[in-house]
Amino acid sequence: MSRTLENDRLMRALRRETVDRTPVWIMRQAGRYLPEYRALRTRARDFLTLCKTPELACEATLQPIKRFPQLDAAIVFSDILTVPDAMGRGLYFAAGEGPRFERPVRTLRDVRTLHVPDPNDELGYVMSVIAAVRGELGDKLPLIGFAGSPWTVATYMVEGGPSKTHSHIRGMMYSDPDVLHELLEILAQASCIYLAAQIAAGADVVMVFDTWGGTLTPAAYKEFSLRYMEQIVAEIRDVPVVLFTKDGGAWLEAMADTGATALGLDWTTDIGDARRRVGDRVALQGNLDPCVLYAPPEQIRSAVANVLESFGPGNGHVFNLGHGIHPGIDPAHLEALLNAVHELSPAQH
Q1: Which of 33, 37, 156, 221 is catalytic?
Q2: According to the model, what pLDDT value does residue 143 have?
Q3: Which end of the chain is more exposed for a tag (fewer CB within 10 A), N or C?
Q4: Burial 324-344 (b: 16+ CB within 10 A, else e)
Q5: Which of 8, 72, 79, 210 does the annotation list as catalytic?
Q6: Which residue in 41, 89, 134, 170 is the catalytic one?
Q7: 41 is catalytic
Q8: Spatial contact of 244 and 207, defined as CB atoms under 8 Å apart
């Protein structure tokens, strides 16, 4: 889907076209660091209710846009576990523990009970949020939709929740790889359909978050994570696709080979080195360490300058953090980051 946007810097940068300054948006820009989000969360009472109530999720999506007019994109307020939730695995959020599933997926029988959710029925609330945000934004800014990577979503489904060792899914990977591949194939199909529906509802860009791909060996990453993200990239033709593997700096060339429009980088990879490695095949997004935002504004400005200088002159850079903004960040410090990008990046173009 293509629309004429008043602010199209993000779209142009993703296509590595000329821009007047580096566009900027922030992962988890709608979240707990904002007092208005915390008030909204109190109104919703719990996270899933907030996600599944379109008028509340629309408000959450737009809160950072209203507070920070320097942002060049909105990202829909949702969660990477909406798909397995729609598969009936009993998603809930335990206080202080994060997401949990009442019914983990551990056997072939479990996998074969799964279905690909109808995005306009079981996930229709996400499409309603996107349509509502699109209606509020009009054509002012691009809207980013997203999904978790099949591997990352599978880790939560198999483990039953967060895990430091991922012992259940890594055990399955070595002892029952065919079962894991069957699960990943279902999740890849569901992700393609889900993202296509987001695009139809009004998303201008889609991003695939591979939070746990970086825990794998190089061979396992290519077989169990990258292979399925490549399937998604092959199916999404209408809008730019951004792939982000946390701790995935070792595999940038292989990620670029998928045909993705852009790669997200975390802070463990120098963005200048990444640019030299991938050339002009993809745009790059990132990659300031989120903890920099605990520093005073003058140090934030210096860190922003370092990222911009590392990328160097030219096009194809979307400024972002290397991962999501932390809940304890002072919003004024994010404003300092945004102002620094606006003031310093034109010199690179």
Answers
A1: 156
A2: 98
A3: N
A4: bbeeebebebbebbbbbbbeb
A5: 79
A6: 41
A7: yes
A8: yes
Which pLDDT score, from 0 to 100, does residue 97 have?
A: 74
**Candidate list 9, 16, 21, 28, residue with the active-site label:** 28
Residue 85 annotated among the catalytic residues of the structure? no
**Where are the extended beta strands (E) located within the chain?**
74-75, 91-94, 98-101, 143-148, 205-210, 241-245, 262-264, 283-288, 317-321
156 labelled catalytic: yes
pLDDT of the residue at 98: 87
- What are 55-113's pLDDT values in tens digits? 999 999 999 999 999 999 999 999 999 999 999 999 998 777 789 999 999 999 999 99
How many residues are present in the chain? 349
Active site residue 79: yes
What domains are defined for the chain? 9-284 (3.20.20.210)
Q: Active-site residue among 15, 32, 227, 281?
A: 32
Residue ranges in the chain modelled with pLDDT below 70: 1-2
Who contacts 229 (Cβ-Cβ below 8 Å, separation ≥6)? 149, 150, 208, 210, 243, 255, 258, 260
